[in-house]
Write a structure and sequence with these properties.
The protein is of the alpha+beta class. The protein has a single domain, classed as Alpha-Beta Complex (Cyclic Phosphodiesterase, Chain: A), CATH 3.90.1140.10. The protein contains five helices and ten strands; from the N terminus they run E-E-H-E-E-H-E-E-H-E-H-E-E-E-H. The protein has helices spanning about 25-35, 65-80, 115-125, 150-160, 200-205; strands at about 1-5, 15-20, 45, 55-65, 85-95, 100-110, 140-150, 165-170, 175-185, 185-195. The protein is globular and about 50 Å long. The model has no long low-confidence stretch (mean pLDDT about 90).
Length: about 210
């Protein structure tokens, strides 16, 4: 476990989440896609692509004194998981095109490593009092939140144009605990802890470098 922030005030309340960080190359590709999705008509709050992460668990407001316990859970889960590859591809909306609220880019993998990582984390966090998520885990990258939909047809056209994008593959080798601070300029994320996954086989190690498919 890598401690990125030390000596946090224990009585402090922080807003926290657990996520996988994206490589810079993926963020650059997301920025390009985001520009293509913007239509200048529909009102969308776009996420700064440098702030886009693959969120595994949103913890909400927690006491800072819980950070060390969460650190132990992360370490326990990470040491049971081997490095694995995921691919960033496709675009879509939640919950549906009939009533779109979230614009996303998808996350896919050949196996079930990500789902297993998520399930292990969910199970382990219950020991600290965190409730399991009732919704089915659908890994994705949130690109924007729709505030007012003026032209659904235009949004659909932009999404269809980018429906089959493939932004590349990268290796998931760490889990991070982030603190989120809301400011007038937007959310500011700070890494608090890092837990490294077990080194995988030779093929997985080669996948650590970014590659376009």
């Amino acid at each position: 476990m890598v401690a990125l922030i030390q000596n946090m005030e224990e009585d402090k309340i922080i807003r926290a989440f657990i996520a996988i960080e994206l490589p810079a190359k993926i963020s650059e590709e997301l920025n390009r896609v985001q520009k293509e999705l913007k239509d200048g008509v529909n009102k969308v709050t776009w996420i700064k692509t440098g702030n886009v992460h693959l969120t595994i668990k949103f913890l909400g407001d927690i006491e800072a004194k819980k950070v060390n316990s969460i650190e132990q859970v992360l370490e326990s889960v990470a040491c049971k998981s081997h490095v694995f590859n995921i691919t960033i591809k496709r675009t879509g909306v939640f919950p549906s095109m009939d009533s779109p609220r979230i614009i996303w880019v998808g996350v896919e993998e050949n196996g079930a490593n990500l789902a297993q990582l998520y399930n292990n984390l969910e199970d382990s966090l219950t020991t600290l009092g965190f409730e399991k998520e009732e919704r089915t885990f659908k890994p994705h990258l949130t690109m924007g939140r729709i505030k007012f939909l003026k032209d659904k047809k235009l949004l659909k056209q932009r999404l269809e144009k980018n429906a089959d994008i493939n932004l590349g593959q990268f290796a998931v080798d760490s889990l991070y605990l982030f603190e989120s601070k809301l400011t007038p300029e937007g959310a500011v994320y700070t890494k608090l802890k890092e837990a490294k996954l077990k080194t995988g086989n030779r093929e997985q190690e080669r996948g650590k470098s970014f590659s376009l498919s």
